[in-house]
Design goal:
It is a single chain. The protein has a single domain (3-100), classed as YaeB-like fold (2-Layer Sandwich). The protein has four helices and five strands. The protein has a five-stranded mixed sheet with strand order 1-5-4-3-2. It is 31% helix and 29% strand.
Length: 116
C-alpha cells in the first residue's frame, strides 16, 4: 500500500463536499493507494500524471517513490477550465512547483504548460 500525500487545497475541497461525496472521493483515494488502477488515465501531455474519475469529480495525482500524491480534486467541469482557480488548462507549473521543487523530478520536463 502506498503512502498518501494530499495537497492542502485538495484536502480543503474534500472537506467542503457533502458527507456522501467525501466518502466517495476518499474511498477512491484509498483504492488508488491499495493499487486499484481501473479507470485511471494518464494526462495526454504529461504521462507521469494521472486522473481518476469519482462520480462528477476528478482526482489528479502522480506516484513518486512509495507515495500517492494527490494534487488536485474538483468537479470535472471545473478541473480542466473554467472557474477553478487552478485549472489544468492554465498550466501545471504553479500547481506542481511548490510540491516538487523541480519539475524534472517527476519526469515532466521543463515546460509544464498544457498545450491545447
Amino acid at each position: 500500500m502506498l503512502n498518501i500525500d494530499i495537497d492542502p487545497e485538495a484536502e480543503t475541497f474534500i472537506l467542503t463536499l457533502p458527507l456522501k461525496r467525501q466518502k466517495q472521493v476518499v474511498d477512491k483515494i484509498d483504492a488508488l493507494a491499495a493499487g486499484y488502477k481501473s479507470g485511471t488515465k494518464s494526462l495526454k501531455e504529461f504521462p507521469s500524471l494521472f486522473r481518476m474519475r469519482s462520480g462528477d469529480y476528478r482526482i489528479v495525482y502522480y506516484i513518486e517513490s512509495n507515495t500517492l500524491n494527490i494534487i488536485l480534486i474538483d468537479l470535472r467541469s471545473r478541473i480542466y477550465k473554467g472557474s477553478n482557480p487552478r485549472p489544468l488548462d492554465r498550466g501545471l507549473e504553479p500547481l506542481l512547483a511548490p510540491r516538487l521543487g523541480n519539475a524534472q523530478a517527476c519526469g515532466l520536463g521543463t515546460s509544464l504548460a498544457l498545450r491545447r
